[in-house]
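In this section we turn from sequence analysis to structure. A common task in structural bioinformatics is to predict how a protein folds when a small molecule is present, because the ligand can shape the pocket around it. The inputs are simple: the amino acid sequence and a SMILES string for the ligand, here flavin mononucleotide. Study the lines below before reading on.
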Amino acid sequence: MIIDMDQTSAGRAYQWLASTITPRPVAWVSTLSAEGQGNLAPFSFFQVLTGDPPTVMISPLHRGDGGLKDTVLNIQATDEFTISLVPFALVDAMNQCSVSYPHGVSEFAQAGVAPAASTKVKPPRVAASPVSLECVAVQCQPYPADKPSCYLILGRVLALHIDEAVLGEDGRADPARLDLVSRMGGDWYGRTRAETNFRLGRPAGWDQAQR
Ligand SMILES: Cc1cc2nc3c(=O)[nH]c(=O)nc-3n(C[C@H](O)[C@H](O)[C@H](O)COP(=O)(O)O)c2cc1C
C-alpha cells in the first residue's frame, strides 16, 4: 500500500505521519503572555536540532478556527519559553494541559502543576519534571509561507535542569530512571522503561570523527 500525499487530505496526511513517526517526545511548553500570565501546553512535534549551539524545535499547528495557539502568541510576544519533559507520573496533568483554556488562563493552576522558577528566562518550568530546558526563540516563522498551517519555532537552549535522581552510575541520564512518555499516534503513548530499552554499541570501523 502506498499513500500518495498529493491525493490525501491534510487531516489524513497528519494522521499517517503522526501515527508512524513514533515515538515522539512530548515538550511541555511553558510561556508567559506580554501581561505575564502563565501558559503550559504539550507538543509532540518536537525535536533537538543540534548541540552547537544547543537548539530544539517545536511546530505548533494553527488552531482549528485558524487562530494561533497561546504558546505561539506568547513566544511572539516575549521570545522566551521552557520545555519540561514528561515522566509517566505526570501524564494526566500533561494531558489536562491540552485543553484549550481562554488566553490568559494558566494551565499550571487548572491542571494542578507546581511551577519552579527558571534562572535565565521568565517562564517557569514544571517543578516535578526530571528535565527542563530554558529557551530563547531564535526563529518563530509560519510554515509554509504561501499557506501556513503551523509555526516553526527554534529555541536556543540556555540552561538544562536535571534531577540527579535520574542519573546512572556513569553520570548520564538513565532512560529507565527518566521513565518519560512519548506520543505514538491516536491515543497511544510509550514509556522509556527498562523492559524495552537495550544497549547497542557502535559497529567495528565506526569513525569517531563522525560523532
Ligand atoms: C501529548 C500531546 C501532544 C500534542 N502535540 C501537539 C503538537 O505537536 N502540535 C500542536 O499544535 N498541538 C499539539 N497538541 C495539542 C495542544 O497541546 C493543544 O492544542 C493546546 O491546547 C495548545 O495550548 P495553547 O493554546 O495554550 O498553546 C498535543 C496534545 C497532547 C496531549
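The chain is about 15% helix and 35% strand. As an exercise, try to locate the residues that line the flavin mononucleotide site and compare them with your own expectations.
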